[in-house]
Amino acid sequence: MDLKELETFIAITEKGSISAAAVTLGISQPAVSKRVARLEDEMGAELFVKGHRHSDLTAEGEIFYKTALRMLDMHKKTKLQIAELSQDLFGTVTISASSIPGDFILPGLLVEFAELHSGVSVHVNTTDSQTALKALSDKESDLAVIGVDRSLPGYTSVPFFEDELVLIVPKTHPLAGRSSVEMDDLTNLKLVGRGSGSGTRQVWERQYKNRLGAMKDIELQFGHAIGVVNAVANGGEAGVISRFAAETNPNVAIIPFKPSLHRSFHLVYGMASTKAVDVLISFLLNRTGR
């Protein structure tokens, strides 16, 4: 049993099929099947229900899945601990990040990383999710942190941080006293929002379209979440934005959606090109419990 076999087993379980796992891992479907066969031979048991496209776990597979997660987690943590003992880590790492993680989540984590590894320079380019992912694909960055669950062939995408999207309005707005709002309440509001490449916008627009069967026009758009918050604080009627950004301005009323509108930020990365990149990825995953 090796780490690649464990990673393959977990990918099939979490992605739902051999074909999806193959895309995530950047290998062929026959290679995925061979890894599964080796695991099952070693365990002496079938881990997936046959005839279900290898996505449903047997009772033995359920047990093995929990163990595999613990083993990979232990490997990552051990690798990080060893790396953190090194005093000769140097280099530059470039992160392309969407607005919320770039402005609110990464700064604190990267300050801690810099204290551990003063020889590593980390550059964060903050943009929207679509552009951040393209930068990674074009090899302009070493990893990406984005607000939608989207990856690239040969790259790994893992949940990184949880977020809630909320409606913000001026404190004098008729909705300001509401304990919650629904998608229908957006219909007659003139919204300030992010650009079309924003993960925030893609998440709430998808919910809006599923509910009402149409898209919502956004006439005033900003590249950063803070621009949306400040626009509403200065008289814009409303905006849908991350709670991380909304809570920075006391002049807006924050109203959650019912049902609540949550999304995960995802850390997307490929094969680490340098030791510094590898150590930073391990550090971020370790600090967020992944």
UniProtKB/TrEMBL annotation:
Entry-linked Pfam families: HTH_1 (PF00126), LysR_substrate (PF03466)
Superkingdom of source: Bacteria
Residue stretches making up the HTH lysR-type domain: 1-58
GO MF entries: DNA-binding transcription factor activity; transcription cis-regulatory region binding
Keyword Mitochondrion found: no
UniProt xrefs under Gene3D superfamilies: Periplasmic binding protein-like II, Winged helix-like DNA-binding domain superfamily/Winged helix DNA-binding domain
Keywords: DNA-binding, Transcription, Transcription regulation
Keyword Transcription (UniProt): yes
SUPFAM superfamilies per record: Periplasmic binding protein-like II (SSF53850), Winged helix' DNA-binding domain (SSF46785)
Family: Belongs to the LysR transcriptional regulatory family.
The protein, known as: Transcriptional regulator
Origin organism lineage: Bacteria, Thermotogati, Synergistota, Synergistia, Synergistales
